[in-house]
Amino acid sequence: xxxxxxxxxxxxxxxxxxxxxxxxxxxxxxxxxxxxxxxxxxxxxxxxxxxxxxxxxxxxxxxxxxxxxxxxxxxxxxxxxxxxxxxxxxxxxxxxxxxxxxxxxxxxxxxxxxxxxxxxxxxxxxxxxxxxxxxxxxxxxxxxxxxxxxxxxxxxxxxxxxxxxxxxxxxxxxxxxxxxxxxxxxxxxxxxxxxxxxxxxxxxxxxxxxxxxxxxxxxxxxxxxxxxxxxxxxxxxxxxxxxxxxxxxxxxxxxxxxxxxxxxxxxxxxxxxx
Length: 274
Hints:
The chain is mostly helical. Helices cover 66% and strands 3% of the residues. The longest helix has 43 residues.
């Protein structure tokens, strides 16, 4: 089966419909409770956080899939979920599709956290050294603070100038350590949210099952699914390896979802189940 030819086709099958509703309600709740005056943060509690973060909770491996950053984020994910997921649910049925969706989302989260933990090793090691120096070696600590700030883009010079102090100000070491701790916690507690990992799994499954089906880019330009899938996966893999500063997209979650999706659909097809 290389091209999708519908027979009996539901435009909005059961699982897709319910996923759209749940994501929409969660997005509404996020924005209802957003803001500095709110006593509850959906992102802190339900978005995915690094294992090193105090905010990490096991259920976030699932709940992060139902939160989104802004309207464009949820619109893109939900459109792709409907566009490709509806076809897969019609082919597989609701139970298998839901299992596939959840496994891709959780698998993407685990792979993302594993890569993130590896990337955070230097930061964590340096922070722990800084913490030790703050208690044992004031002169070495000041130099370490300066180097730590430079490596991790902390605007230390500007902060000191704004507060009319310097590294040589008597008794400043505890305040500097508090500042470094604030930046460290902010970095390791960066939230990851969205259904993109699961959606990438769905995209790759569609590409694998129906490689010669045409997808219309911007509804105008026809491209075979296999070429679009290869290009999109290659781009995400390249961006993940590049790890560009300022890129706030969880590239490895996308790659992870695609890998898990491919493994699942490959195994199922070999067993004659898809």
